[in-house]
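ARCHIVE CARD
Drawer: 12
Card no.: 0347
Subject: one protein chain, sequence and derived structure
Cross-reference: see card 0346
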Amino acid sequence: MHEVLVVFRRELKSYFLSPIAYVFGVLMLSMLLYYAADVTLVDGSQASAENLFRLLPSILLYFLPGLTMRLWAEERKLGTLELLMTFPVTIGQLVLGKFSASLVYLGCVLLLTLGLPLTLAAYGPLDWTPVLASYLASVLFTGSFLAVGMFWSSLTRDQIVAMLLSLVSLFVLYNIGDPAKVEAAADWLPWWLVDVISAISPYRYFQSVARGVLDTRDFVYFACFCGLFLYANALVLHGRRQKG
């Protein structure tokens, strides 16, 4: 556990010392809040933060590949990955430390959006149960996309290639869970097949948790999904260590 914390602190520190992380955070927040704040505020009327969490998955889809592309690809390009491999830590600890630091950084960015529901609550009654559930769903959803992006970054030293691979795979994962597209696909595919395909998408489970329905199966899904890609990430790095 100590080794994971060492990697975690190193990676998290790099975020807050890097201007790129601040630019990424500001751009993502600006776009998210600009579109999410497009609501009519009337004193005493029922307030809703639905816009914010409806837009969040699609915003993450386009922004996350730009963040994850550097996680391993930059280490390889700069030659620091070989140095990391010489540290007295296991591959699993390296992967878990980087993943945790990135998720905490993105969690901090998400936390800054709290100003929107607080502002809405000042104008009218706001049901905080779905809001808090949506924040939980957002963290889980972010973690799933982050694990996918990290995996692609471990496969190449070219950050642009890593970004494009992440963007395409996340685009597919997002769309196969989109209710409108699932319904359209059901017109020409068997329902059981559509259900199986959509069950792969983190977006489907994001929607379930965001509704405030805390089903254990949703949490098991996110744990398995992240675990699968983080394990694949570790296998890639282990292979590189074996090759020297």
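Annotation on reverse: The CA atoms of residues 33 and 113 lie 7 Å apart. The chain has one domain: 2-243.
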